[in-house]
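Narrative progress, year one. The postdoctoral researcher (J.K.) led the effort to move from monomer predictions toward full complexes, under supervision of the PI. The following entry was the first complex the group processed end to end, covering 519 residues in total.
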Amino acid sequence: MMRASITGVADTAVGNLPGSSCMGLHTEAAAMALEDAGLVAGDIDGVLCAYSFTEPHLMLASVFCESFGIQPSYSTALQSGGATGCVAVMQAAALVESGMCRNVLVVMGDNRLSGMSRDKAVATLADVGHPQFERAFGVTIPALYGLVAHAYMHEYGVTEEHLAAMAVNSRTHAARNPKAQMRQPMTVADVLASRVIASPLKLLDCCLISDGGAAVVVSAPDSAQDTRAPIRILGTGQKNTHEHLVAAPSLTAFGCYDSAAQAFGRAGVKPSDIDVAEIYDSFTITLLLELESIGFFEKGEAGPAALKGALDLGGILPCNTHGGLMSYAHSGAAGGLFHVVEAVRQLRGEAGPRQVRDAKLGFVHGDGGILSAHCSLVLGNA
Amino acid sequence: MSDKPLPTPNAESRPFWEAAAQGVLRIQRCDSCGAAQFPPRAICGHCHAKGAPRWEDARGTGIIASHTTVHRPPSPAFKAEVPYTLALVTLTEGPRILVTLRGKAAKSPAIGTPVMISFDPPVGPNAIALPYAEAAA
């Protein structure tokens, strides 16, 4: 089969951007991604958007197209929480591989930090809890992930230091990325000393709240051949096992394994072939559990390996090289798309001081809900 | 208290909340395959047999599958209670339920601890009695 390619990527400034707007971030990222691809607005015949907290709308893709001034033959908005970025790239690949579209623009953004209060953001996120059997007890997203963390730690002997190693790795990478929201050096002791949010998760085990937007152009093979630096989508996969944690079949095994196995299988590669990984890291437990479930590490070994630098440049699996959701930025659905953008930059060799040498195969993973929705991408530059 | 997000019973959950107001924990069980189910649904999520699963009284016992102590509440409505401890309890019948943990089980929560489920007094227009767990006697 002729594979789809990612032909353009972009992200706006991230962090606290007073005066930014949800649609402003969308259109800025879209224009930058088109320029990066060497395409013009008229080349786009498909658009996939996500959702917004600050400018929510029933039809966000229509709102974007109106705002950007395009009338594509196909457009819709997708909602898979943090997995939406990867899900949209997977859907875009299917659209161009089926012949339905030639160039699909995936664009997401939100001004979640400056456009709403932190309390409102926390409360809005907590609404993903089950309306009758979770929310009434005062759950938060960190609390639900805290429940997963304790169960996983108990089963596999993971410690709070192991979790902290995930956050420290993100910060180490972010220090090399001038765009990252948080760049101040950080140690395991700093993470352990930060205030408890929902045990065992502390402030520095949690992702940021940010403003920012990102866009990706996915093109059919005949369209991609004219672009500057296409990166091929070699394999994609998805798996959902539940939505609410109270109904999850397991508290320690989630859909990440099946999702990744599908993507690896379609690409004809295995985890040890991957040169660089950009993996959804809403919390330290999210990343640690995914690294071990996907097959990059044995159960209980990701933490000790990360403490020895396995996820840093020069390690066996450089991971979240932009700084991830914990140190780069997390602005809603765009947060998961930042991982895609970074993987493409790594595979093009455009990552500057944080470049993974000779990166040829990249892996991107998104997680939505409480490890509910998973989507994996294998990308390659050959 | 009144601004807490109290559940609104619907077609699937009403029998649960009616029993809860009487201090009884009820779960669903499928007549076709025998699977126990919670949260309640319109169909058996295991075998998809036609029709809603029947309701049965649960024993009200289980073990702590996991726990977390919340220091940062979702909204001001929960501020007065922080830190509070939540637990996922695996009921003796199999399904899990999320509850607040109270008493000595909440002081040093531990996975595997046997607990029993009780209910607060009913509140609000729908007479909602929220379940909680404490260490089994």
